Structure formats: C-alpha cells, structure tokens
Amino acid sequence: MEQEDPDVYVHVVEKREDGIVVRGAKVSQSGAIGSHETLVIATMGMRQGEEDFAVAFAVPNGTEGLTYICQYTPFTAERELSPDVKYLGNPLYGQRETCIMVFDNVFIPWEHVFMCGEAKYSGRLVARFAKTHRMNCGGACKVGFADLIIGATQLAAEFSGVQKAPHIVEKMTDMIRINETARACTIAAALKGHEEPAGSGFFQPDDIFGNAAKLTIADGFWDILKWAGDIGGGMAVTMPSELELENPETAHYVRKFMKASAPAEQRLRIAKFIQNWCAGLHGAGTWHGAGSPMAQKMALYALTNFEEKKSLARSLAGLREE
Amino acid sequence: MEQEDPDVYVHVVEKREDGIVVRGAKVSQSGAIGSHETLVIATMGMRQGEEDFAVAFAVPNGTEGLTYICQYTPFTAERELSPDVKYLGNPLYGQRETCIMVFDNVFIPWEHVFMCGEAKYSGRLVARFAKTHRMNCGGACKVGFADLIIGATQLAAEFSGVQKAPHIVEKMTDMIRINETARACTIAAALKGHEEPAGSGFFQPDDIFGNAAKLTIADGFWDILKWAGDIGGGMAVTMPSELELENPETAHYVRKFMKASAPAEQRLRIAKFIQNWCAGLHGAGTWHGAGSPMAQKMALYALTNFEEKKSLARSLAGLREE
Amino acid sequence: MEQEDPDVYVHVVEKREDGIVVRGAKVSQSGAIGSHETLVIATMGMRQGEEDFAVAFAVPNGTEGLTYICQYTPFTAERELSPDVKYLGNPLYGQRETCIMVFDNVFIPWEHVFMCGEAKYSGRLVARFAKTHRMNCGGACKVGFADLIIGATQLAAEFSGVQKAPHIVEKMTDMIRINETARACTIAAALKGHEEPAGSGFFQPDDIFGNAAKLTIADGFWDILKWAGDIGGGMAVTMPSELELENPETAHYVRKFMKASAPAEQRLRIAKFIQNWCAGLHGAGTWHGAGSPMAQKMALYALTNFEEKKSLARSLAGLREE
Amino acid sequence: MEQEDPDVYVHVVEKREDGIVVRGAKVSQSGAIGSHETLVIATMGMRQGEEDFAVAFAVPNGTEGLTYICQYTPFTAERELSPDVKYLGNPLYGQRETCIMVFDNVFIPWEHVFMCGEAKYSGRLVARFAKTHRMNCGGACKVGFADLIIGATQLAAEFSGVQKAPHIVEKMTDMIRINETARACTIAAALKGHEEPAGSGFFQPDDIFGNAAKLTIADGFWDILKWAGDIGGGMAVTMPSELELENPETAHYVRKFMKASAPAEQRLRIAKFIQNWCAGLHGAGTWHGAGSPMAQKMALYALTNFEEKKSLARSLAGLREE
Q1: Over 50: is that where the pLDDT of A1 sits?
Q2: Pair B167, B75 in one domain
Q3: Of the candidates D112, D115, D138, which has an alpha carbon nearest to the alpha carbon of residue D126?
Q4: Is there a single domain that holds both residue A110 and residue A131?
Q5: Which residues on B lie below 8 Å from A249 (Cβ)?
Q6: Is the pLDDT of residue C282 over 50?
C-alpha cells in the first residue's frame, strides 16, 4: 500500500481514551446518504506496519467532520425538473444515490469501533464481506432487477403486438435463461454455505458459487439490458415526454401516433421504465458493484483445486504422477 | 398493410394542380429538427391498392401543418440545468435530438415530389436507402464513435495508472478488434459496390457486407460500451459533478480524493465523457438505427445463395444432384 | 404424430395373454449395447388415438428380434488398429458407443411392461424423464467431463511452461467459471427439487434450474473445448502417434523435439487426451444429449411466470392493471 | 532465445563453398509431406548473436538428412481401414496431413538460400509472412471451408425437413453473418494493401484488417462448427457407417429408420461430411493456423494509433493536451 497521500484510505490519526479519530475517504458509497448509520471496514487486507488502516467502525449520518459528496448525473437533473415522480422511469426505486464519504477528523467512540490495528485479521474481514456481497449484490440483487426488466420488456412487446414473433420469444428466453442461471448460482452459494468459523453459528456463502454468480451477472445483466433495448425498440431512447399528453398542442398527435396494441399512455410509461435500465446507470454499475469482474476472476482461479483436477486427468490418461 | 388508422403512415390525401397534400407521421427522426429540409420516403414497399402511401418528397422545416414533437430524456434535463456545456459529457455532439414529425395536411409542391403512386418502385427505393444506411449508420458512423470511446477509455486507464495491466490491455484489444472488424465490413461494402442500375453512374454498397457491418456493430457497439464502463470504473456512473471543483466546501476534497495518475479535473472530465456513452442513449439507439437487427438478419438470409453452397457441399461429399 | 411409416416409433403390434409384441426403433441410444437391460419409454406425449405408441417397458440385451446397429466413427477405426488402449486419447472411458436399437416384433412379458395404452400419462412420463436427464446429462455429467478437461489443459500449459502467462490464466479462469456455473445450476436444481406427486416420496429436480443447467453447458461445454484446443496448442491436432517413441528411426527425434517443460512422452499423452475432447464426438454430442437446446428453451419459456413479472414491472412503473 | 537445446530451431551448422548445412526441426508443417519443395524461414525475429538462426531457404522433399514424422489421428486410422474413400466424410480434401520436418545436417546449395545471417532483417521477413498468412489462412481459407459447411448444414436441415423452423433459420443466418464478416475483413485487408517497400511492386495486405480477419474467424469458425453440429443433429456424431447399407442384415433397417425428407443414403453421406468438421481436426487447428489468437491480439494492440484516438476524445471532451 505504497501511496503518496495517506488520507486516501480511511485510517486512525489519534487514539483517545474514549475513542478514535479517523481521516480519509470512501468513494462510491451507494445509498450511504440515506442511511442512519454506515458500517466502515478496511478496503483491503492490511500488512504489518499498516495497523492504522486496519480499522472498522460504525458512524451515524450527521457526525461532525463527515461530508457526503453526492453523485450528479442526467438522472439527478431530470428528477429536479420533473413536476411529478410518476414521469420518471423508475419513480420509487430509481434514485440510487452514490456518494463520496469524507472523514475529516471524525471521532468514533470505542463502543462503535470493531477493529483497530488488528492488521492480520483485516484481510479475512474484507474477504468475508466480499463473499456475502458477491452472492447478494452480484447474484440476488440483479436477479430481482432482471425480473422487473423481463416483465417490462414482455409488456412492451405485448403493447406493440409482437410478443409472439419467434425472434422476440427467443430473446425473451435468453433473458430468462441468464437470470435463472444467476439465480441458481446464488441459491447454490447460499445452500452450500459453510459455518465459519466452525461452531460459531455464522454461515458464509460458498465462495466459488458466489463468484460464479457475480461473473454470470456481470456479463449477463449487460446482455439482459441489450435485449430490453432491442425489444423495447427505438422508442425507449427516442420517446417524447409523457407530459406531452397534457400539452394541448401535441397530446392528440402523441395519443394517435404512439398507440399500438395498447394506448399511448401505457406504451410511454413502460418505455420510460425500460429507458431507465437500458440507457441508465445500472449497467455499468453492475460491473463494479461487489468489486470489478477481474477481482472475481482472480478469486475463482485462486479457489480452484487444480491439483485434484490434474490428478484426475493424469489418472484417466494413464500418466503416472511424477 | 392492414392498419386501422391510415394516418399512421404518411400518405397522399389530395392531389392538386400545384402539388400534393400529405398526412401521417414519421417517428424516431434523429436530427430532423435541426435540418433545413427533410427527405421523406415510404416506410416499406407498397403493394397495389396502396398507391397513396407510395410517396417520396422533400419538405422544409417550418412548413405549415408540420409539427415536431421532440424527445425528452434525462440528458435533455441535464442540458437545461447546466450552467455551461463543458460540464456535459459530450458537449458539442452529444445532443442527438430525435423527434416525431407530424404531417397534418402538409402541402408539397410538385417540384419537391419524387414519387407519388408508383407502388411497384417503392420497395426498391426503400431497399436502396437501407443499403446505404446500413453501411453508413451501422458501419462507418459507429466506427467513428468507437474511435472516440476507445481513445477516452485508454485515457481513463492511463489517468488511473492501470493501462498496462494485462486484463486492461486485453479489453482494449477486444474493443479495437470489434471496431476494426466493423470498419472492414464497411470498407468491403463500399469497395465491392455495384452500379445500380448498370450504366447509371450511381453506385450502391454491396448489400451482404453492409448488412454484416450493421450486425457486427449491433452487438459489437454494445460490447464496446461494456468495456468502456468496465475500464472507466465505477467512477463513470457514480462521480460527482465537475461543478464541485468550484464549490468551496467540497472542492479540496474532490481534488484530493479523485486524483490518481492525473488531476481530478481531467479524471472527472473524461469519466463524464465515458458516462455519456456507457450510460447514455446511443447503446440502445444503435440496435435500431438503420432498422432492427432482425431486419438485417432477414436480408442476409434472403441474399445468400444457398444453392451454390449446397452444390459445393454435395460435390465434395460425392453426393450427386437430384 | 402424422407419420407415413408407423414403425419409426416403437409401438405395440400385438397384445397377448402373457405380454406384448413391439415394433419400431430407438435411435441414438448411447451405451445401450453395453447394458444388461434397457428401459424404453415413449418418445413424446401421445394423444388419443395413439395408444399403441404410449408404451414403456424393460428389455434385456439379446432378446429375440432386437438388433443393435452401432455407430462407426474415426475413433472406432483408431481403436481397432491400436496395439494397446494406452495409445488412445481417453482409453478407459472414451468409448461412448451409440447405436440404433431396432425392435422387429420383440416380445415383452407383462411383468416388464410399465405402460401400455395410457396415452394421457405418457407426456408426464417423458417430462419427468427429461427433468432428471437435463439436470444430470446437461449439468452434472458434463461438469465432471470438464473437470478432467480443465485438469488436462492446466497440465498441458505446465508441460509447455506457459501456465503463468496472463492470457492462459484468463482462459483457464473462464473454463472454471463456466463449469462452476453449470455445477451451481445442477445443485440448485437438486436442492430445490419437489416431491412429485406430493406424498409419494419421489423427488424431481426443479425444472427451471435443470433447463438452465443444460443450456449453460450446451454453449459452455463448447467454449471449454475451444479453450482446451487453444491452450493445448496446435499439438493436440497435429501430433504424431505416441508409437513413434518406439520407432527406432524417429524416437530420438520425437523425444528431442516434443520435449518442453516435460518429457515428450508426457506431452504426447496429455495432448492425445485433449485431442479426444477438442476434436472428438462429445462437443456436438453435448448439444443433443437430453434433447436439443431448442427443447430446453421452449421449456424455459413455458415455465416462466410472465404474469408475475409483468405485474411487478407495472407496479413499479405506476401502471395500474387493466 | 535462451534455449537449452540449439537444435530446436533450424540453424546453420556449417557454411561451405557450395552451400550451407542446417540442423533443427519445424513442427506442425501442414501439407509439407505432399509438396515438391518447402520454403523454410526463421520462426521469429532474431537478434545479434543469433545469426545462425537467421536463415531462409528452399528444400526439395527427399533431400538427404530430411525426415518427415507425420501426424496420426483417428482420421488416419479410419482412412486406412476404409474400403473406399467415399465412406470418409471429406474424401477428396479431408486429408490434412501435418508433420514434423527434421533437418539432420541437411545440405542446402547457395542458390536455394535466401537469408543466411542477416539477423536484423529476419523479424521483417517473419512479419511479412504473417501478414499474408493471417489474411489468407485466417480469412480466405476458412471462409471457403465455411461456405461448404453452411451448404452441408442447409442440406442436412432440408433432408430432415426442418429448414423453415425459425430457430434453424436464425442459426443459419448467424453462420452466414460470421462468414461474410470474415470475408469482408479479408477483402478489406487485400484492397487496403500497401506497396512494401514503396516502389517495389510488391503489395502486402493491410495488417490491421488481416489480424481482424484471423481473430473474427478464430472464434467464428468454432461457432460455425457449433451450429453445424446443432443443426446436423445427434446423427452427425452417432450415425452408423454408410457401409451398413451394404450389410444384408441391417441395410433394410438403416434405410427405413434413417429416412426422413431424403433417403438414408443421402442423409448419412451429408451427416458424415458434417461429422468431419464438427468432430474433426479443423476446429482446434483454426486457432493456431497463422499463429495463436494471442499473437494477433498483440499485433492489433501494437498497430493501434492510440495517440490519435486519445486526441480525438480529448478534443471532444474539451480537455486540452498536456
């Protein structure tokens, strides 16, 4: 961890009788601004000499010295200008606010400190978090998203009257295939979980299947968005505002020309929902949630028992062990 | 063309001595609002009895009875609220305004009418337009976009200091591979073009290679965006506004925590450029520009000389023709 | 089931007091020639009027009227000519003999008949067989094959001294990723199995995950073979016979020029093992074992609860049910 | 080039007044055994101190000291046992014999020596060979193969009566799409070729498009084989020998049960042709012909003008050059 500026990672700058003082930042913290309290852990396993960075604690929103710098995207602007959330594509759950949390000498009382200097355990803590997060964020979370996207895409196809065309059925099936595959990986990760440490009563997901879940969804979610955009049609990225339906100069045109097997209102509403996905923040976000795919690939390679597989191959090929 | 409402497609409602009167709409007209004049042709080949729909003409922007209903997206909102275009991801060319053009009894003088009732030629006209459009819009146009995206992604990797990591090099190479493949299809389509009709001096691109260009880019551009988002990092979809650099409360934090191998300003600027692509309108738009991929697949299948290939296979397999 | 020749499918031609007489054929019966007894069931669900085809029974190998017409492939020829099985790529388990079983008036005693005329249950019987077979043959079986292939490919890389090259590690990881994904689908299919019918004590795999397993492996096994061939190198398809090592004129050359990080003997042996996979019968066979991928796609689409997903999407988009 | 055994690469061991004496081996030489003469060039660019390896010459088959060690595969065995070549899958052109050429003190007269010690030019010679070979072997050659495979697969579909099923049409179209894309890359490589060196009258293919051709076909040919196996059906890998049609005990059964929309003879013949591809040597061979895909990826990356693309992106993002 040879970095020029020690403040990049959160670390302890003072130990007091009643607690610790921390400095540094946590970037890409999705949802933190909306939480009552945030659990902070080290970013990676720390080594000897890096004890100050081996820290874990809870901090309530609003604590002195803590600043949230929120993301700003086209979707932020749209929300600001919209007279009603119903005109946004994903009105209730589409606001996925990510922020940078800056810790500028923030005091954390001892009762909220869970790790402080135990460098040798920090890697294990991060690994356990990753295990759970890859199964959940990589698997279960996107599987839920995809259920919505599949439902919306099927509606869009029905609204256009094309849901029975063989190539539409084929693409819908591919969306389902990917999603059920990711769901299966998540379920296998959960069901093949291990008690860790033995006797503790705490279970962790199986790491191989958790990484398989995240890698399946990393590419797979992108493909699901692709087909949503393909089936959703050009409409999903070229549509006028639903507010035109209240515009006396254009409402009758929009009603007339956006109508198909369903009225314009319904087609616009569901196209907007699809737009929020296929031209939104979640696609690229999925790559990095729970770590970049390269991290999962490295984990998967490291977890593989090559000796056992090599031995099986040798045995069948009639090649004795050296 | 059995449709309930004849107005959905543009058609002639009156023929006068000095010209024609047309009604109907053209949806998903990218850039039309910014053009001096728009060339309108039939949507598909028309059959006997559909002469009124076999129409082609030019119409200047501002003609009476012509209404443009523009798209409205998160990017429209962001542009409205931004104090300077430089804060937008693709400030100069990112505004790709698509609209619905409504023709409500629009008069077109005869000197601007190119086809009117010649149903048997309408299919050929559409096919010739498609040929050119698939080579250009499917091939050349996105190849140029992708050059920009590849350049920006390489910059983002360099700004983060990861440009030499083997998996980054691998992904950059895959982006290049796809783009050069699409470029090759476009070049082959142009160079193997045919004079059509013979002796006319007008050349049309080769249809097989033009369709191959569009199909290569349909999936390929989506993959290029995927890797841009992967290499661009979570930052591309979670970054704060560049305006924070002018905010006295947060500027020093952003400068400190967004710095890597390049200063925060540069990283934010290029991440925003990448955001405009990997979380923008172009990905899904690419599917449908120049027709949906299914249209190109049908064309490719129809253009294939199966008899010749079957005959070659028969001959090598020693199977005489029936 | 409108077929010209009723004999194509196995059916009952006579019911006697002591049993039934059947005619017809079963094609692509892998392993049947080596079995003591074969369980025969109808090929598909039969309808009213097709009772003669709604049949299920057990038949011992060697029964009068039963003929096995075995497959003949290049691998059959190689086995015939080889002085020792050790020179074959997959000596112990590589002989995957498929045959056509012809039933020419074969008598089956009643105690070996399990279904005879119950057309309405025949579809359910086939579906239950498919459920199990897709989980096993599509999932578990190929996952075991792939463990061997991954082991052999890693050995080949080590024998050539290239196992640490980043692109080799990347491809090995992709092989593992696919295989663990298929394994997860199989495990999820088994663990989420249902008692069918309720109270019977018989459990069937979950059908969605079983189909996901087969579809994951259909494309995935082909990709695993691809990387085995890529990493195995040209050697896997251009190598001389291991018997050259006993040829006084060539043995010293082969030993000298086929040596790398491992002696020629070992490299040839493992390259031959890889050849058996990447230039063998299993790749194409995997497509059709347990039914063609199209059958699984149709099943997956039919099993999907679209109404629930549509309802979720409607609800989030604020679109009331019609 | 730090190798233990200098004999692995072909090199000069003696320079005489009338010629040179060379030692070493060339592995994976496809077709060499059937050629009158072989052109030998260095394997890679040689550096100072490696002059003995910077050699290029022509050698006639049958020269003293030259030994060919041929490959031996299941297909070799099948050919040996077959009473007539017509029973082999690809009787006329399926024999793609690869061998190891061993040079054990082979004398090459000066008039057949084209390079001898000019280490600094050896890299350029190899690069020029690679350029042509990637366009031809990667592009044109496999495109021709694929025309045959597409023809045979369409015949197989027609023989089974399934050629109009939408998923068959879709897969046939995908085979065509890949093949026409590779053809376009080859054509673009040829048409955008450069005179090299200027004024010489010798033209070399464009290197970027040549590498794109090879990389398109590396993955693409494998996919084409996949769909041939899928559409060809289980039959392609489980079929009995065509010789059964001459077997009095089984001929009538085979005729009866292998018949579909075409007679058994035709179905068997074309299935055997497909078997030769989808369960044959060409798939894995394609990866390494003209160098492994990794070599082309490295070339493509090295050939890319990143500075130009970065500059374009900077300019559009409003980011001044440093």
Answers
A1: no
A2: no
A3: D115
A4: no
A5: 67
A6: yes
Best residue of B217, B230, B245, B282 to probe chain A, by most A CBs closer than 10 Å = B230
- Domain-terminating residue out of A117, A138, A153: A117
Residue D4 lies in a domain: no
User: Last residue of a domain, which of A64, A94, A117?
Assistant: A117
User: Nearest-CA residue of chain C relative to A314?
Assistant: C152
pTM: 0.95
Asked if residue A178 and residue A35 are part of one domain, the reply reads no
- Chain B neighbors of C164, CB-CB under 8 A: none
Q: CA-nearest residue of chain A to D165?
A: A166
Query: CA-nearest residue of chain D to B187?
Result: D188
B139 in Cβ contact with B214 (< 8 Å): yes
ipTM of the complex: 0.94
Amino acid at C268: L
Whether omega before C197 lies within 30 degrees of 0, making that bond cis, reads yes
Q: For residue B136, give how far its alpha carbon lies from the nearest alpha carbon of chain A (Å).
A: 18
C102 with C136, same domain: the answer is no
Residue of C nearest to B165 (CA): C166
Within a domain: A222: yes
Q: Which residues of B touch C170 (CB under 8 A)?
A: 166-167, 170
**Cα dihedral A210, A215, A220, A221 in deg (nearest 10):** 70
B170 contacts in chain C (CB < 8 Å): 166-167, 170
Contact B279 A237 (CB under 8 A): no
| Chains C, D: CB pairs < 8 Å | 197
- Best of D8, D23, D73, D239 to substitute, by most chain C Cβ atoms within 10 angstroms, is D73
Looking up residue B44, the CATH number of its domain turns out to be 2.40.110.10
Joined together, the tokens standing for residue B132 give 């050119």
Nearest to D280 among C102, C235, C279 (CB): C279
Q: Distance, in angstroms, between B102 CA and closest chain C CA? A: 27
Residues B68 and B139 in one domain: no
- Whether B165 maps to a domain, the answer reads yes
Calculate how close chain A gets to D291, using CA atoms only, in Å: 26
Q: Which range marks the domain in which residue A280 is found?
A: 127-314
Residues C129 and C35 in one domain: no
Same domain as D145, residue D78: no
Q: Is position C269 within any domain?
A: yes
CATH code for the domain in which residue B172 is found: 1.20.140.10
**Burial (CB count within 10 angstroms: exposed 0-12, middle 13-18, buried 19+), residue B49:** exposed
Is the Cβ–Cβ distance between A1 and A53 less than 8 Å? Answer: yes
User: Total domain count for chain B?
Assistant: 2
Q: ∠ at Cα C218 (C217, C219), nearest 5°?
A: 90
Which are the contacts of B163, defined by CB distance < 8 A and separation ≥ 6? B154, B157, B169
β-pair type (C98-109, C113-116)? unpaired
Q: Tens of pLDDT along C300-310?
A: 999 999 999 99
Measure CB to CB from residue A280 to each of B69, B249, B279 and give the nearest one: B279
- Give the one of C181, C187, C319 whose C-beta lies nearest to A270's C-beta: C319
d(CA D9, CA D69): 16
The two structure tokens encoding residue C43? 């090929």
Among C162, C164, C167, C171, most B C-beta atoms within 10 A, so best to mutate, is C167
- Inter-chain touch A292–B233, beta carbons under 8 Å: yes
pLDDT of chain D along its 322 residues, tens only? 445 687 889 999 999 999 999 999 999 998 899 999 999 999 899 999 999 999 999 999 999 999 999 999 999 999 999 999 999 988 888 777 899 999 999 999 999 999 999 999 999 999 999 889 888 887 889 999 999 999 999 999 999 999 999 999 999 999 999 999 999 999 999 999 999 889 999 999 999 999 999 999 999 999 999 999 999 988 999 999 999 999 999 999 999 999 999 999 999 999 999 999 999 999 888 888 878 899 999 999 999 999 999 999 999 999 987 6
Per the listing, tokens 């490291």 go with A302
Contact assignment for B270 to D319 by CB distance below 8 Å: yes
- The mean per-residue pLDDT over the stretch C94-98 comes to 81
